């Protein structure tokens, strides 16, 4: 649905040129929720704004739904942009217009008839849960309600893609979760592809299918969220994963363990299988669980255990081989 090829963007600041993003290649599949995470100044907003050409990349190609956007005339681009909705951290609502008029705004721009606009706005109010607030002004709404207006407005023209620019960063944790749930609902009900940027791993973990980590204008790591979460490789990714409370720091354990420390990653149905028991039962190896989590991410079960294997070396090797042969990802920490 979105294909970015070799995108770079430089800004001129007086005589100095700042390269905000460099050689970015990114593909977002239809129906996917894709997250881009990075620290402040990493280039997230620039990258997101390149997708609908609010920023025009200095070099590279931007395809949305198979259509190359960088070569379109301004009127063609305007048409294509109707297929790409966008929501913002600070909502960007018209303060002098009611909720209803804010949502109707893009429909009026698209020259839809009054009756049809009314019908569509009512449908959108229902979708985002704002039926009772239709005639209020933005100043009379909470942050979460304002973002719901932003979402309804972004969906008005039935876009294929929704771009989310730090959409929950101005909201408290509970409201953040309700907006994230709404985004998942929209993704599932309407099949809209969502591309979001954030600096919070919680957002990625809660709703994204895949993630790209961006640092100093470059993608440094990308993949399925569960895999990146369980086995982050780049230091920036490790830093983000450690933001989430149940991530592990094993450095202290390494100093005090008596046996061999290993980290086991389970993904999918394996999580509920007695693999560890089966691997040790015919040996004299004992194990203790030092850290662990068994949970679900977007409906997929996963587990991560740090265990200590106590026994003789050949038998420990045998246990590790048995765990691997059952499909577990085994990291040898000592
Ligand atoms: N219009 C501009 N003119 C000059 N430099 C810019 C402009 N916009 C962004 N930059 C620079 O480009 C780099 C990337 O900025 P960008 O806003 O894309 O990062 P970000 O990851 O979205 O950061 P934040 O999370 O703080 O918004 C920064 O060094 C920023 O100073």
TrEMBL record:
GO molecular function: ATP binding
UniProt xrefs under InterPro entries: AAA+_ATPase, ABC_transporter-like_ATP-bd, ABC_transporter-like_CS, ACT-like_dom_sf, MetN_ABC, MetN_ABC_transporter-like, NIL_domain, P-loop_NTPase
Domain ABC transporter: residue ranges: 2-241
A Pfam family reported for this protein in Swiss-Prot or TrEMBL: ABC_tran
Presence of keyword Nucleotide-binding: yes
UniProt keywords, alphabetically: Amino-acid transport, ATP-binding, Cell membrane, Membrane, Nucleotide-binding, Translocase, Transport
Membrane among keywords: yes
Annotated Gene3D superfamilies: 3.30.70.260, P-loop containing nucleotide triphosphate hydrolases (3.40.50.300)
Name of this protein: Methionine ABC transporter ATP-binding protein
